[in-house]
Write a structure and sequence with these properties.
It is built from eight helices and eight strands, in the order βαβαβαβαβαβαβαβα. α5 runs parallel beside α6. The longest helix is centred in the C-terminal third of the chain and has 15 residues. The protein is α/β, with parallel strands linked by helices. The termini are close together.
């Protein structure tokens, strides 16, 4: 399965191609799904381009995307969007338009309470386990681990020469935890394509989009997440759907 991540915490200062408004997100999602993405991951943003968990921001983004694509759509619950864990839970409980799933970064304070709030509302959980953090160990101890939709193995090493090793080490740590949940492996920035190729070799779900990298495998700037999806399918032999 190939997921597209449309924007991440990036904004227009990173690239003019980053979609910010609900209309821009919907157009980017439509193009990416047409290119072969089987799921959409998005960071809903305020008019000034900041990630937000407010129902007044999340709702319109989800509604716009769902009006043009018929695939699962997920959102972030990153602490940068709402630093206070209790407030993060309040935001989730106030959502009127529900995503199909949401990512929870397990190294962040309050991860278990955020995950519990999502489960209570029937929202799937992507357990984000970042390299360079204690997320895998914390997730291994979580009573909610068996209930997550999937594990995001996030090899965030930006160095293309070491990202593959970082990914292998994190995958081994996740395997050692003994939780039999599907794995989605992805990288970031200069390491994104190296890790995506590894995911293809291992037969794992993966993702690509302007959140993960702004550049194509040949180092040209990407014009859109759809262009990255097309490149991913060719680069690693990834099929449109899983």
């Amino acid at each position: 399965m190939l997921q597209v991540c449309l924007n991440g915490a990036r904004n227009a200062a990173d690239s003019a191609a980053i979609p910010l408004s609900p209309a821009a997100l919907a157009d980017a999602a439509r193009q990416a799904v047409a290119a072969g993405a089987a799921e959409v991951h998005v960071h809903p943003k305020t008019p000034c381009g900041k990630d937000s968990l407010s129902p007044r921001v999340v709702g319109p983004a989800l509604e716009a995307i769902r009006a043009v694509v018929d695939v699962p759509v997920g959102v972030t619950t990153g602490a940068w969007a709402e630093p206070d864990p209790a407030r993060r839970v309040e935001r989730i409980n106030a959502w009127t338009e529900l995503p199909d799933y949401a990512s929870v970064n397990w190294h962040e304070p309050g991860a278990d309470s955020v995950a519990a709030a999502l489960l209570e509302r029937g929202i799937g959980i992507e357990a984000g386990l970042w390299s360079g953090t204690d997320a895998a160990a914390r997730f291994a101890r979580s009573p909610l681990a068996p209930r997550v939709l999937r594990i995001l193995v996030e090899a965030l090493d930006p160095d293309a020469t070491t990202a593959r090793r970082t990914a292998h080490e994190l995958l081994a740590e996740v395997a050692g935890a003994g939780h039999d949940r599907p794995v989605l492996l992805h990288g970031m920035n200069d390491g994104a394509w190296t890790v995506l190729r590894l995911a293809g070799e291992l037969g794992l779900d993966t993702r690509i989009g302007l959140e993960d990298t702004l550049r194509l495998p040949d180092d040209r700037p990407a014009d859109s997440s759809a262009q990255l999806v097309l490149a991913a399918k060719e680069f690693a032999g990834i099929l449109p759907a899983g």
